[in-house]
Amino acid sequence: MSSRLKVSVGQHSDKGRKAANQDFHACYLPCEPLLSLKGVAFAMADGISSSELSHIASETAVTNFLDDYFCTSDAWSVQNAVQRVVTACNAWLYSQTMNSPYRYDKDKGYVCTLSALVIKSTRAHIFNAGDTRIYRVHGRGLEQLTNDHRLWVSQQQSHLSRALGVESRIELDYQSRPLSLGDIYILATDGVYEHADTGFILNSIETSSDLDAAARDIVEHALERGSEDNLSIQIVRIDALPQPGSNPLHLEAEQLELPPILAQGARFDGYKILRELHATSRSHVYLALDEATDTRVVLKIPSIDLRGDPAYLERFLMEEWTARRINNTHVLKAGPQSRPRQYLYTVMEFIEGQTLKQWLVDNPRPELETVRGIVEQIAKGLQALHRMEILHQDIKPDNIMIDSSGTVKIIDFGAARVAGIVEADLALEQDDILGTALYTAPEYFMGEVGTTCSDLYSLGVLTYHMLSGAFPYANQVSKSRTAAAQRRLQYGSILHDEREIPAWIDETLRKAVHPNPYKRYQELSEFMADLRQPNRQFLNRTRPPLLERNPVRFWQGISVVLAGIIVVLLNR
After folding, report:
1. Any domain includes 572
2. Residue 570: inside a domain, yes or no?
3. Over the stretch 394-445, which tens digit does the pLDDT of each residue have?
4. 14 Cβ partners below 8 Å, 6+ apart?
5. Residue 88 near residue 47, CB atoms below 8 Å
């Protein structure tokens, strides 16, 4: 099996018996690294006969889709990237109609259908709005994968119930299907599929060595059978599928040499090593000077013991790959990349400051307002990651830096889950829990895939720990690996007789760290708002009993009372 995706394509379009062709189709088959990161894309649009502008809409929809999809972030999933691109295109078509003489008669405006197929790694991603169809050859038949968005008024009369340019917002049907070697997909407008015989289509594809010729024969066949509409068809055959581990990070790890252990004062690939910052079983980290730009950076090389582990090396490179796709004050930035590299290492910005873990050692009882300020900055960094469909998955004091100006930054993306990379290589889906147990959301211990609520849970635990020095469920979360066990988890109140913490803050944290992700806050902004201003739902709740707030104090009190009773009885 090839290490890269390979497809064969045939396509043809004809105006048929109409004066003009309002159909439009195109495809884009990129080279690496786009091939692995974004896949190959096919699109077909069909105009409506009542509009003289519909051909403009069709061409715009297809060209914008293909141009813009490959310009979206590599970190985004296919679904998110396509949805955003088509939403923008639909808004433009709708605005053109609303600014034209046909704003009250949209059937004459910039309107078209759109079907799109994106093949990435070993999956097909299918999108549709309108009645252009996508089929898959299945045995000796055609399996229709899309639904027609057409409303039938009578047996003879119908109209589109969904299309681009009709409303200010568009809803796309979406599905994802696994691919097999030799799979054949067909995109076709109604001028073809309403008239072409299934047997003829299959025979043409099987017997022709040229898929373009097969597409042309199918169009001519539909014309001969009475089609009076424009006719367009695309045929896509899967010739090779990529092997697991063929994403760009894997390829980069294979191509670069592994670096030696570095010493202070050494010169390495354009850098001068100033000093070692720290060394662990997973990596060696140095403060270095980029001699080309005269800037200090943090240079990290992989551990010698793990250099034979491809998954480790891919995750090692993931940190810088992720940082280069985020531009936010509260997220660690990648170092400048002004020259090709000879060795496998990462370069990140140098932050003059300390970790939150060290800060908590120096400030063991921080004020509530100070904690709010730190947590809000972390939340802003997480929001930036989540907008790019990146889960950090390891929020803890060690992975938060506070610089000399008080700016808080999220660091270490070694455990990050990037939607676009996971789609590009299913081998990166791991059952191992990559984060730190005390801060890891309960759903991970049940083998579930994390969500943004999982990062929110970790932030809630971090907030709880900063205010109390403890953890909401002690060390019981990692031991709770069933739904029943997680339901039995008991939240320990953060309220303490010796600390001035409002009861509504405790309720806010209780919700943020709920074992059930659907009962947590669904947005970081909601958590931040309730951490700053009391939620009315929390104001009427009574203060927890002393047994929950301070079990030690409770049992000490019971002991004193019992001792007093014993003394009284003895005196009698």
Report:
1. no
2. no
3. 999 999 999 999 999 999 998 899 999 888 875 544 545 667 899 999 999 9
4. 21, 219, 223, 230, 231, 232
5. no
